[in-house]
Every structure is written in structure tokens, then in C-alpha cells.
Design a protein that fits this description.
The chain is mainly α and 278 residues long. It folds into four domains: 62 residues, no CATH class; 46 residues, no CATH class; 42 residues; 83 residues, no CATH class. The chain has eleven helices and three strands, in the order E-E-E-H-H-H-H-H-H-H-H-H-H-H. A three-stranded antiparallel β-sheet has the order 1-2-3, covered by helices on one side. It is elongated, with a radius of gyration of 46 Å. 4% of the residues are buried.
């Protein structure tokens, strides 16, 4: 920087510029000039700084040159490529709070403030001396909030348990009702079943082990339920299946068969066939 860059009037700095541009902080330049007599290396330091920075400025500003990436980019591309020039958004008290809450979202504001004060004010010695109980680490607001959370959790658990018991009671009542319900084994009576009576009969058949009812439920159409029940009754009457726990041959002529002879309604199992062949 040449000495002609600085202009003086009657020994007092009146105006100053760098490459014909006004300084952004003329008061700062004035202070530096007032201290210049006490800074013998100021001129050499400035030369060294600008000599090194000049190379970096050329590298940083090359993309702004005519024909460069930024010069040829469209307005839309510039908007897409734009980013904050500094990391100020994550610095300072508010920035630190944003980063902390992103990493630990469960923290309360008072706890975050306490952590910031702890690291900034070096309060470890104070805590060792006065914070002797676990509850000392929590403020009254934190304890109140934690208690509210605990009470809410207990309330939710109690509501879920009450709902579970209510469902269990209904299921037990339904089981008792189905156990006492008389099974209809006459297909001619099925068309007379309507509404809940029809749906309960479907559940009854499923309880006693009637086959081929997996695709039919209480929400199925009435016609589909009646058709499935009629088919199940027909299969029962022709001996395709039996009610669980029902005596072998009950209600049919096979009751006259001997104990050692298999019923016509019960298929011979694999092991019985094997023993017979042996």
C-alpha cells in the first residue's frame, strides 16, 4: 500500500480510501492511524497480509469472473445454489439452543439454560459444594412437569387396563352365551335366523370346530353366512365332521359298532392303518 493512498489535511486525517472506495469503518481507520507511531511494524504487517490474501482472493473470486459458473448461471440455478455465507444461524445463544434441542429434544428450556450456564460460568465447584441431593439438580418447574408426565402416563395405563378388562369381560360373557346357545343342525331352520341370532350361530359353529368357515365372519353378507351354515350342517349330517367332545356315534347308527371297530364318521388315522397292516 503506497503512502499516497492516505490523504491528510493540516496534519489531521480528513478522508481515506482504498482503490477509490470509501472505507466502511472510517472511525476504525482513524484510530489505527492515531496509533501508527506506536506500531513500528504496522506497514510490514499490512503488506504481508495483503500479499497473502491477494492470492486467496483470486481463487475465491475466479468463479465470479466473466464466463465463470456464477456469471453463466441462470437466476433459478443461483437460487438453488444459494446458501448462508456463515454458520451464524447455529452460533450464539439461540443457535446453540437450536442445535441442542435437535440433538436432545427431551430437554426443557430451564435445563438447557442450566447447561449453558454450567459450561460458561464454570460452576462445577459450586455444585460439588452445595448440590448434595439428587433433587437439587432439578428446579421446581422441572419437578412439576415431570410429575405431570408421570400422572398422565399412569392415567393412560389405567385407561388401557380398564379397556382391556372390559374387553375380557365381554369376551367371557360371549363365551358363556355361545356355550349355552343350542346348535342348529337342521338346515331348514337357517333361513329363519336373522340379525344377531344368525351371527351368533356362525360363532357357535366356529367354536365347535365346523370346517370351511374361515372366509366368513360376522361382517359378511347375510346370504353368505346362511349358505356357509347350511353347508356346515350338511357336512355334519353326512359325517364329514363332528363336534369337539361329542361321543362317537351319538345320534347315528354307528353307535351299535363295537369299541374296537372305527366309526364310519371318523376316518382311520395313519397309525391305526399301520397297526392293522402289521
Amino acid at each position: 500500500m503506497s503512502a499516497s493512498t492516505w490523504k491528510y489535511s493540516t496534519g489531521i486525517l480528513s478522508s481515506f480510501y482504498l482503490e477509490i472506495q470509501e472505507w466502511q469503518r472510517p472511525d476504525f481507520i482513524r484510530v489505527v492511524h492515531s496509533m501508527a507511531p506506536t506500531l513500528p511494524h504496522l506497514s510490514s504487517l499490512l503488506r504481508a497480509f495483503f500479499s497473502g490474501a491477494g492470492k486467496t482472493w483470486e481463487r475465491f473470486t475466479s468463479e465470479f469472473a466473466p464466463g465463470g459458473l456464477i456469471d453463466e448461471a441462470s437466476l433459478e440455478e443461483k437460487e438453488l445454489a444459494w446458501m448462508l455465507p456463515t454458520n451464524d444461524i447455529n452460533e450464539g445463544a439461540l443457535g446453540s439452543f437450536r442445535v441442542m434441542m435437535r440433538q436432545q429434544p427431551q430437554l426443557s428450556l430451564s435445563v438447557q439454560n442450566a447447561q449453558a450456564m454450567y459450561f460458561r460460568n464454570e460452576t462445577q465447584a459450586f455444585m460439588k459444594q452445595y448440590f448434595v441431593k439428587p433433587e437439587d439438580l432439578h428446579t421446581g418447574e422441572d419437578q412439576k412437569r415431570e410429575q405431570e408426565i408421570i400422572e398422565h402416563s399412569h392415567q393412560r395405563m389405567a385407561e388401557k387396563e380398564a379397556t382391556r378388562k372390559k374387553r375380557q369381560q365381554k369376551r367371557q360373557e360371549k363365551d358363556l352365551w355361545l356355550e349355552a346357545l343350542e346348535l342348529v343342525l337342521d338346515e331348514t331352520k337357517v333361513p329363519g335366523l336373522k340379525g344377531e341370532a344368525l351371527k351368533d350361530m356362525l360363532d357357535k359353529f366356529k367354536v365347535v370346530g365346523a370346517p370351511d368357515l374361515g372366509n366368513v365372519n360376522r361382517r359378511s353378507k347375510v346370504g353368505a353366512i346362511r349358505e356357509a351354515l347350511i353347508v356346515a350342517i350338511e357336512k355334519y349330517n353326512n359325517g364329514t365332521w363332528r363336534i369337539a367332545g361329542e361321543d362317537e356315534g351319538e345320534g347315528d347308527e354307528s353307535s351299535d359298532l363295537g369299541d374296537d371297530e372305527p366309526s364310519a364318521l371318523e376316518p382311520i388315522s395313519d397309525w391305526e392303518e399301520t397297526d392293522t397292516e402289521d
